[in-house]
């Protein structure tokens, strides 16, 4: 099979720090990065230069940007040698670019969230299902937590009954966003034109991890949202309680509104799932080489010959954080006919629905299943 | 003032390990322990013997029990030399004994919860307010977390604005109750005839601490309850989200349903309250002498001359756990005309209402204010 021609649309922090290395990590001969698009020429050129270096190319990928009508996004999408695009653009811009790319016959991997809100997500998904999927086009959402090997490993354990019947769970993400935070200083994040601010942008990851881990489907959410640090408007904090189809329930605490760094560093952020026979925790950590890992710890009850509890066992698994690499490789595999089912837009829509529900619940239960069926 | 004659009604674990030492810690001349009542003679005699020793008495307090009609609880309450009783009896028995004691003209300090459910609590409180309070009788609920110096210290800081405007809070208690746990083996706790089991019995403490700490009144609760360890029926776990009158919100996780001890020891149980300018945490710990303390840590933002965040300060305060001692002393003070307002039955009723709401919410918001006005 000849390498697929691909392009990266967007040249922000994540395109540079995550997507480009993921493309560089692809097996040789799988893809050829042919073009970079950004609204600004400067930014696109910078990423193209970085790409030439990291991909060891003879010349940089072609640069497309809004100022040149002969080298704008439409020109890029008109190229027959580009089969697929990776989109990492501002949240509210993405849906229109996804549409454009699909209409141009490109396979698409677009960054989460699938859309800024549930209604526009449903619209886009319906359009894809009706018009583009039948043509064999792949559209996936880059939800790296969903495909992250650590969550997949933990999910297999939990769903396989390792901790017994799941009873309750807990997800906590406590962030501190200083005014000089690099993500905060992306203009579209400083004054977001979408619900939830960082809660939508970052929160969907945690929801995706829960979606993967829990044997039951999250069906009802009651919660509260608030703004605690004015520079993070409209909201920076969600507290919610959730019920799943198997009767388990949990608490989700998402906040980027820490008043000081210690509120984040000492928060013991992470996920726990507790069952009748044990519990599992998944936390961010560093391994001996200083590499970012997700550390899974499973502790399960042991019994004596009469069936009485007499202790517990502990198992620790560390998985290097590599979800973006895996998702880009998996996207290329899907284009080449080997689809493992990750990155389904409907899954990503459920993550947006969760955040939207939490932002609007004000204590009342929101039916998460109905919400994505609007 | 001559010492008040007092009696302890109940001779279980808490009467022995907490109330007796609290009586022993009273200033000399404040009270004289004259009698012990228990349903069983053996148990009452044991506590009387322990009391003689720890209070350094010439003879043990008189023993009253159910088998002897001349030395039963009515005989005890008929004694004119006994002015006040401390009641630590099974949850469902207490209200009738509180009534009996008040009717006999005794001041009463009765263990939390004020009643097994909100309705019976309201009934009892109304009866007290109508019939006994006008006679000058004191009735207090022994809710030691409410009066615990650490929570009072932390409350002063939070309510005084130390962490800025309170935005969100978190209370987590994760317990492991083995089948050989000493409290679990109190017969009335093994098969409880009241809602919530340990969640009512122990959970009201955490709710009381929040009630003291938060500047806003907790007005709405949405949550879920479940049973994860069958020996703890009817319920062992609550997950709830709460809103207060000042718009702050929080999460409460109460569980005694840990499948293994590590789920409890590694849970980072405790309370945090986060405001716009800092946060406070209160956790159980041991001090240098190995004594049980509550450790309060307050961290607040510091600003440069232009008002920009430039760091944070940390303040740690450790308070010896001594709520029961303080509450017994305060009860005697109140009898002697110096009432500091602690132990109000209505406060304790709110704690029961919280647990009852969490057990019955099933995700729907419960109005906590209305619930205590039934």
Automatic annotation (TrEMBL), chains A, B:
Pfam families, alphabetized: GFO_IDH_MocA, GFO_IDH_MocA_C3
Every GFO/IDH/MocA-like oxidoreductase domain range: 151-280
UniProt-listed GO biological process terms: NADPH regeneration
Domain Gfo/Idh/MocA-like oxidoreductase N-terminal: 5-127
Recorded superkingdom: Eukaryota
GO cellular component terms, semicolon-separated: cytoplasm
InterPro entries: Gfo/Idh/MocA-like_OxRdtase_N, GFO_IDH_MocA-like_dom, NAD(P)-bd_dom_sf
MF annotations from Gene Ontology: nucleotide binding; oxidoreductase activity
Family: Belongs to the Gfo/Idh/MocA family.
Name of the protein described by the UniProt record: Oxidoreductase
């Amino acid at each position: 099979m000849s390498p697929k021609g691909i392009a990266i649309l967007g040249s922000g922090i994540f395109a540079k720090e995550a997507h480009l290395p993921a493309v560089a990590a692809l097996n040789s001969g799988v893809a050829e990065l042919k073009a970079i698009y950004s609204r600004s020429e400067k930014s696109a050129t910078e990423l193209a230069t970085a790409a030439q270096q990291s991909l060891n190319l003879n010349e940089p990928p072609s640069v497309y940007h809004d100022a040149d009508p002969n080298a704008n996004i439409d020109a890029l999408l008109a190229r027959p040698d580009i089969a697929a695009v990776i989109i990492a653009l501002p949240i509210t811009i993405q849906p229109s670019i996804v549409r454009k790319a699909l209409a141009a016959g490109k396979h698409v991997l677009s960054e989460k969230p699938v859309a800024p809100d549930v209604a526009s997500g449903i619209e886009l998904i319906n359009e894809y299902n009706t018009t583009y999927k039948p043509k064999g086009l792949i559209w996936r959402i880059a939800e790296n937590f969903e495909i992250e090997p650590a969550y997949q490993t933990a999910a297999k354990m939990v769903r396989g009954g390792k901790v017994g019947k799941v009873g309750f769970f807990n997800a906590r993400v406590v962030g501190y966003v200083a005014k000089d935070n690099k993500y905060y200083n992306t203009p579209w994040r400083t004054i977001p034109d979408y619900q939830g601010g960082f809660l939508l942008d970052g929160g969907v990851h945690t929801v995706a991890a829960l979606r993967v881990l829990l044997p039951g489907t999250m069906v009802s959410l009651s919660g509260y949202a608030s703004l605690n640090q004015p520079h993070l408007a409209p909201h920076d904090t969600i507290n919610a309680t959730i019920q799943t189809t198997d009767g388990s329930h949990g608490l989700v605490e998402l906040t980027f509104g820490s008043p000081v760094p210690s509120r984040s560093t000492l928060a013991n952020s992470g996920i726990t799932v507790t069952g009748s026979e044990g519990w599992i925790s998944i936390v961010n950590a560093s391994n001996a080489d200083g590499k970012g890992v997700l550390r899974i710890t499973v502790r399960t009850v042991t019994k004596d010959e009469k069936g009485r509890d007499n202790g517990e066992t502990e198992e620790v698994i560390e998985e290097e954080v590599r979800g973006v690499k895996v998702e880009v490789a998996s996207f290329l595999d899907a284009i080449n006919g080997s689809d493992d089912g990750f990155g389904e837009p409907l899954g990503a829509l459920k993550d947006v629905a969760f955040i939207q529900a939490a932002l609007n619940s004000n204590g009342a239960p929101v039916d998460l299943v109905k919400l994505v069926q609007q």
